[in-house]
Amino acid sequence: MLEDFARDIAALLDELSVTNIVLWGLSMGGQIVLEFYRLFPHSVRALILADTFAQLDSDARRQERYDTAERLLREGMDDYAAEVLPKMITPKTIREQPEVAEHVLTMMRTTSPAGAAAALRGRAERQDYTPLLPEIMVPTLIVVGSDDEFTPISDAEFMHQRIPNSKMVVIDATGHMPNLENPDEFNRVVTEFAETLALS
Question: Are residues 115 and 63 part of one domain?
Fold first, then answer.
């Protein structure tokens, strides 16, 4: 499934005659970025990997994805969205930025259950990107929220230690979505990274 997403990106870039891209992805999007680099490394100028991880799921985590997929097909998204909100963003963000909490809830609740279930299964069945990491030869920015429960700092460090030309940044007091919880800091980090690319 992730290969399908990566090939769709490649087809769009071909249609637009765009080459030498900086590709960014968060969470599952980061795994799609890794899959794209695996298939099309010569199309990539740089990578941004946010709140994602490269290694395979444990057996328990893989089964949890399958079980959750079945649950979403049975029950829909509403209860699940309310349950995982404090993992998507921090409780502090929920208290102090209710508009962000409402935005994230709305995104999850309006997602197709069938689409969410397919995404869960696709992630459960994806390949291990660990062997790819030392082969990434482009500048890579790794960003992670300090309180991310889904992809903790240790997952970011795992990638950072293996990708030769990588930089890692932890955004304080944010969870799995630092781009929404602290957009000013997130955008500053990404802008600084982009500026280094312009100079190189």
Answer: yes
